């Protein structure tokens, strides 16, 4: 999966440890991101948000002149930039506070470089998918904006449930999404007893997206656990 | 409350016993006294005998010796009054001078009921007259007008019973009122003592009969509360210390992990260097898990970790834990089998999703840690009549019987005491135990079917959950 356009997104990293800033920068650079800037304080971060207008901000919680939560709240007053907290504070309350404020993700240090890249990828795809709504699969393409699948120049409309299920799979592309998560995405908070309906929907989605629905290559079943959406390599 | 009823029963029992004892004692005393005093009917009998023993002869009247002796012994005198003349025809030698020798009918009526000149007198009927026996003035006391209402005598048995009954009732009433007052003042004290072991603050009003005891209970409660607070403060300090240390380790460890991961992924480096980096990355991951576990274990131990019980589906949680692991993409050596029956309905308990996920995750990690050469891990959820079970097992090297025994019996963190090379079952499993018991469940460790290690988490089914 290669989304080159996403690699040109501007990323701001805020942390008071210069060593850590350097390391995260190098991880992201290795991952192909081209424009990365860093800030060590709240005031510096606010200034850069206003002037440089990043597309994604990675914030630490403990900063010398304030904390990441209040920084995020100030940022929200003038920008809608997606935010990922990357912090040593691993308490559930902190996590809930960060996510409750509207952050897109919350990662606790220490972390694996791979995991950071994956999570950033998910946020960027989520936020900026509208700029490139066509998702390429092995045998077809999905147009989420128009809720349809294009296969061999034919257009197949997606129902609302099929759209929700596919979107949940796409946001976690290349990763297994459990049956329960998919049911929750399609049927909401009390998703018990929809497993059979889910299977029926998956079957219909496969008829639309797979070249050979009885031998799926894009929407893979992981027996008993869930499903995985495999994107086409460019 | 049970104690109070017991006390009342004991009191009433004692009262009954003492009443019976008092009655028996009274009867005995009465019997002893009445046998020692002169029988009520004796002077009358003496008079009657005297009348019978008085013989009229030609020389006059003669009293037989026996009776005469008896009269003399008692200092009694006797006269014989003739029916016709109402004169004294015979008398004993010791007749006092003041006793008249001529009587009228009214005199006779009076002496029969009472006295002659202060001497108590008793009459006996003779052939032609009346024998009167007189005793010394201080010998007998006579009731002069002994007559009672007929109904009173007729109803006497009932009257006596009623009086006794009323008396007993009154005594019981007084007793019960007095005791219940006492018990009333005892009740808050017993309640206070019973509440002490609960650990909650106890206050008993320091009033009444037992105010001293109440004050002592209040003092004890204060001391207990103070100790509890001190203990909590110490525990909090310790947990905070652990959480502080683990927090400070996180950032440096991020660097180790981050750079090691980058070197590992750098394809321009020789494989041998990348392998070294991989080992650094793997070990720092272990350290990360250890920090997380240490923090959580100390919090669970001191009950600081909030359990947010919500209806959760164990199947979904187990599935998510397996998928989390698969999505890490580092599990080629550790394939995971999902062996849950597809028709199993949702297994809902009240639980904390994150903690349960952590428990299952720890079991999967545990199987990996102890099988560096790889193994197949199997996860399944089952339902019996009373329990939901989550079973995590592997087909790896397993554990010795000795170790299994140790796992089952040692509730705390097991340090490796035989060198650092020995793999250690420790914090990870301890946390599993803490999390499961916080959900009122149980953990069972066992050998796998053929080989390997198996852990079963069992949670009771509560019917009223959704």
Please give a structural write-up.
The complex is a heterodimer of chains A (234) and B (466). Chain A has 234 residues and is of the alpha/beta class. Chain A folds into two domains: 4-130, Response regulator (Rossmann fold), CATH 3.40.50.2300; 133-229, Arc Repressor Mutant, subunit A, CATH 1.10.10. Chain A is built from nine helices and 14 strands. In chain A, strands 2-1-3-6-7 form a five-stranded parallel sheet, sandwiched between helices. In chain A, a hairpin with a 3-residue loop joins strand 13 (219-222) and strand 14 (226-229). Chain A starts with a helix and ends in a 5-residue tail after the last strand. Chain B is α+β, with helices and mostly antiparallel strands and 466 residues long. Chain B folds into four domains: 2-37 and 149-186, no CATH class; 42-134; 231-305, Helix Hairpins; 306-413 and 423-460, 2-Layer Sandwich (Heat Shock Protein 90). Chain B is built from twelve helices and 14 strands. In chain B, the strands form four sheets. A five-stranded antiparallel sheet of chain B has the order 4-3-7-6-5. A five-stranded mixed sheet of chain B has the order 9-11-12-14-13. Chain B has a two-stranded antiparallel sheet with strand order 1-2. The A-B interface holds A 17, 19-20, 23-24, 26-27, 30, 88-92, 108-114, 175-181, 192-193, 222-226 and B 243, 246-248, 250-251, 253-259, 261-262, 265-266, 281, 284-285, 287-288, 292, 295, 306, 313, 315-316, 319-320, 322-323, 326-327, 329, 338-340, 342, 345-346, 348, 354, 466.
């Amino acid at each position: 999966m290669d989304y080159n356009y996403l690699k040109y997104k501007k990323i701001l990293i805020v942390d008071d440890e210069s060593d850590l800033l350097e390391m995260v920068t190098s991880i992201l650079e290795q991952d192909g991101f081209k424009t990365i800037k860093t800030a060590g304080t709240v005031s510096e971060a606010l200034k850069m948000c206003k002037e440089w207008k990043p597309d994604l901000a990675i914030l630490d919680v403990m900063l010398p002149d304030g904390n990441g939560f209040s920084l995020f709240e100030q940022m929200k007053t003038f920008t809608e930039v997606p935010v990922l907290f990357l912090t040593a504070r691993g308490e559930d309350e902190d996590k809930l506070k960060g996510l409750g404020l509207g952050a897109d993700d919350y990662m606790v240090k220490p972390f694996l470089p791979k995991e950071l890249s994956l999570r950033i990828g998910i946020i960027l795809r989520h936020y900026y998918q509208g700029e490139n709504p066509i998702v390429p699969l092995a045998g077809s393409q999905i147009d989420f904006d128009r809720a349809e699948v294009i296969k061999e120049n034919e257009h197949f409309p997606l129902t609302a449930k099929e759209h929700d299920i596919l979107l949940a799979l796409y946001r976690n592309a290349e990763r297994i999404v459990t049956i329960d998560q998919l049911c929750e995405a399609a049927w909401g908070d009390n998703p018990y007893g929809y497993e059979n309906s889910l299977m029926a929907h998956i079957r219909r989605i496969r008829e639309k997206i797979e070249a050979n629905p009885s031998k799926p290559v894009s929407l893979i079943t992981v027996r008993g656990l869930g499903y995985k959406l495999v994107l086409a390599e460019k | 409350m049970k104690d109070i009823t017991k006390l009342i029963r004991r009191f009433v029992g004692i009262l009954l016993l003492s009443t019976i004892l008092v009655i028996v004692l009274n009867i005995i005393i009465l019997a002893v006294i009445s046998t020692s005093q002169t029988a009520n009917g004796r002077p009358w009998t003496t008079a009657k005998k005297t009348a019978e023993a008085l013989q009229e002869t030609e020389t006059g009247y003669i009293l037989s010796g026996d009776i005469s002796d008896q009269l003399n012994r008692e200092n009694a005198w006797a006269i014989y009054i003739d029916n016709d003349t109402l004169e004294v025809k015979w008398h004993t030698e010791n007749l006092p001078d003041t006793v008249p020798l001529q009587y009228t009918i009214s005199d006779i009526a009076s002496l029969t009921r009472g006295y002659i000149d202060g001497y108590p007198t008793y009459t006996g009927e003779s052939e032609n007259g009346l024998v009167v026996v007189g005793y010394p003035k201080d010998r007998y006391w006579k009731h002069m007008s002994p007559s009672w209402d007929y109904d009173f005598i007729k109803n006497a048995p009932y009257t006596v019973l009623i009086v006794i009954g009323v008396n007993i009732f009154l005594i019981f009433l007084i007793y019960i009122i007095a005791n219940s007052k006492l018990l009333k003042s005892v009740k808050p004290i017993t309640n206070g003592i019973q509440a002490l072991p609960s650990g909650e603050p106890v206050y008993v009003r320091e009033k009444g009969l037992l105010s001293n005891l109440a004050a002592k209970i209040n003092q004890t409660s204060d001391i207990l509360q103070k100790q509890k607070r001190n203990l909590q403060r110490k525990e909090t300090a310790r947990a905070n210390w652990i959480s502080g240390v683990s927090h400070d380790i996180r950032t440096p460890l991020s660097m180790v992990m981050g750079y090691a991961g980058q070197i590992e992924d750098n394809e321009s480096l020789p494989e041998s260097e990348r392998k070294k980096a991989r080992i650094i990355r793997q070990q720092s991951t272990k350290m990360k898990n250890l920090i997380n576990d240490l923090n959580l274990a100390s919090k669970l131990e001191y009950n600081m970790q909030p359990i947010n019980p919500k209806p959760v589906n164990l199947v979904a949680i187990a599935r998510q834990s397996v998928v989390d692991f698969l999505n890490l993409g580092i599990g080629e050596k550790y394939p995971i089998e999902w062996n849950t029956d597809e028709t199993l309905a949702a297994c809902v308990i009240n639980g904390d999703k994150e903690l349960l996920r952590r428990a299952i995750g720890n079991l999967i990690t545990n199987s990996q840690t102890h099988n560096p050469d790889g193994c197949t891990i199997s996860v399944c959820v089952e339902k019996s009549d009373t329990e939901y079970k989550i079973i995590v097992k592997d087909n790896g090297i397993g554990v010795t019987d000795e170790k299994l025994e140790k796992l089952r019996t040692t509730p705390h963190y097991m340090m490796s005491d035989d060198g650092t090379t020995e793999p250690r079952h420790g914090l990870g499993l301890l946390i599993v135990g803490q999390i499961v018991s916080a959900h009122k469940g149980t953990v069972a460790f066992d050998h796998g079917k053929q080989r390997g290690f198996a852990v079963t988490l069992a949670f009771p089914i509560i019917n009223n959950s959704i």
